[in-house]
Amino acid sequence: MSGDELFLGSETGTTAYREAMERATDAVVSSFDSTDNPYSGRSPEALSGAFEDPVIPETGTGLEAAIDEAATRILAHSVATSNPRCAAHLQCPPMIPGLAAEAMLTAANQSLDSFDQAPAATVLEGEVVDALCGLFDLPDVSDGVFTSGGTQSNFQALLLARDRYCHRQFGRDVQSGGLPPEAESLRVLCSEEAHFTGKQAAHHLGLGEDAVVTVPIDEDRRMDTDALDAILAELDTGDANPFALVGTAGTTDFGSIDPLTELADRAAEYDLWYHVDAAYGGALALTGHADLLDGIERADSVAVDFHKLFYQPISCGAFLLGDGDDFGWMARNAAYLNPEEHDETGVPNLVAKSVQTTRRFDALKPYVAFRAIGREGMAALVEETLNLARDAASLIEEATDFELLHEPTLNAVVFRYRPREAMSDAAVSRLNANVREQLLHDGRAVVARTEVTGVTSLKFTLLNPTATLDDVAEMLDVIRDCGAAVVRDEEVVA
Ligand SMILES: *Cc1c(COP(=O)(O)O)cnc(C)c1O
Fold first, then answer.
1. Average model confidence (pLDDT) across the chain
2. Which atom of ligand 1 has the smallest separation from the CA of 280?
3. Which one is predicted more confidently, 476 or 341?
4. Which of 155, 191, 280 is the pocket-test mutation for ligand 1 (most atoms within 8 Å of CB)?
5. pLDDT tens, position by position, 201-245
6. For 111-360, CATH number?
7. Structural domain boundaries of the chain?
């Protein structure tokens, strides 16, 4: 292929681009049309068998062959995230407006680190961030930045929290001087159900995972505020220095939402940085259930993911600050108390707000999606899935061979297959683990596993607004089939 055929910019390039995009689109569409199942069931060994010829051949095969090969080798054996029986993780069916925006932003290839690499994109990201701050009722001085997702947003929250605290408490500039001698005394508080990336961030920030104090949960799997009070009082009398409190709005397994207002009160009382991890539940702000997020408006920082309940293609997240001046704690060029987001020419360069340098123009996706279908349209999708989760929970509760483990708050439903009531927890645990194994090979339903009080359990994350209760019933039947196969195999072995 000649240079003209490989790059946009000439008539030949335009034709080649159209043809390539059309062929890629056809490949995606036929991968959907070829099967009703969310996964082919291929094992890891069988999959690696498809890649025996060289990844870097001496001469290429041409683009058409390369696209077609990617379709047969990879798309055909990908989990079909748009299939209604793909219901394992917080991995959404990407909506078509987002897919169109993704095609546009990758072709434009703007990089959000500096204005001269992304002029309109820089301005638009600011506009989207302002709209999001408005959605969560954050103060006028709020600000934010797009991130790769909740992991990066949670990391950035604890980075800023740590550095603000070390400056105020120990007079230490962590950016230049590193951690203070007192670093071992630093503590972060979150619930037992908080996402693991809080601990991961503590590790990456040089504090260690042991710096994270996990607060017990109540019967609804929300942070227990009495337990929080007891822990805060105890830390207060000792040598420890708690500096941040993390509330979760939508835990990964159960979708539970911590009592955000009570947590905001404790953070204010103990002068803690208040971070709300709303990676999963942030989308409630669009809906009639926005009151479940009351208290989020008092957060120092918020993590929200668009590649979950906002239906945008991966990756797409945002990190919001109640007070935009807090970006100053990580500014590269300015003294941290003099946060300069504009260089001397008055041009906004976003690099100082991000832990990334070259950065994708992901803000285009929610922008195009919101413009296309409005808040109302997006809210209707989310509500559809909340209703489905409630109905799915009833279905599971009524079934004599299943055990429902909670009433869903969002659209995650955790349950166990328990065909005989008399089964011990150990036997149920083994059975559900084996059923999950079988499901992976079966391919008719993609379902997650999790541990609840040490017992292996199953989980639906019902993110697909086009899925119906019939789809859920079908998944339960597939689980029954796999369960029967497991029992048969055990009898053969015995
Ligand atoms: C998904 C999730 C994360 C991690 O976010 P990524 O987008 O995967 O980086 C963190 N916290 C919660 C509550 C999540 O649901």
1. 95
2. 15
3. 476
4. 280
5. 999 999 999 999 999 999 999 999 999 999 999 999 989 999 999
6. 3.40.640.10
7. 16-78, 111-360, 376-493
Task: Give the rounded percent of residues in the chain with a pLDDT score beyond 90.
Answer: 92
Which residue in this structure is represented by tokens 């209703």?
387
Model pLDDT, residue 185 = 97
Does ligand 1 come within 6 angstroms of the Cβ of 151? Answer: yes
Question: Given the CA of residue 151, which atom of ligand 1 is nearest to it?
Answer: 9
CA 25 to CA 85: how far, in whole Å? 23
290-346 pLDDT, tens per residue?
999 999 999 999 999 999 999 999 999 999 999 999 999 998 654 433 445 455 667
Q: What CA–CA distance (Å, rounded) separates 382 from 287?
A: 7
| The two three-digit tokens of residue 87, written as one number | 């219901």
Ligand 1 pocket residue status of 281, Cβ below 6 Å: no
Q: State whether the beta carbon of 252 lies less than 6 angstroms from ligand 1.
A: yes
∠ CA 401-402-405 to the nearest 5 degrees?
155
User: Which of 156, 305, 309 best tests ligand 1's pocket when mutated (most atoms within 8 Å of CB)?
Assistant: 305
Pick the atom of ligand 1 nearest to 149's CA. 7
Does the C-beta of 280 come closer than 6 Å to ligand 1? Answer: yes
Report CA(149)–ligand 1 centroid distance (Å): 6
Separation between Cα atoms, residue 230 and residue 232, nearest integer Å:
6
CB atoms within 10 A of CB 164: 19
Q: Is 312 in the pocket of ligand 1 (CB under 6 A)?
A: no
Closest ligand 1 atom, CA of 252?
15
CATH of domain 376-493: 3.90.1150.170
**Whose C-alpha lies nearest to ligand 1, atom 4?**
150
Ligand 1, closest atom to CA 278?
13
* Mean pLDDT of all residues in 161-184: 97
DSSP β-ladder status, 186-191 and 241-248? parallel
193 lines ligand 1 (CB under 6 A): no
**Cis omega (within 30 of 0) on the bond before 315?**
yes
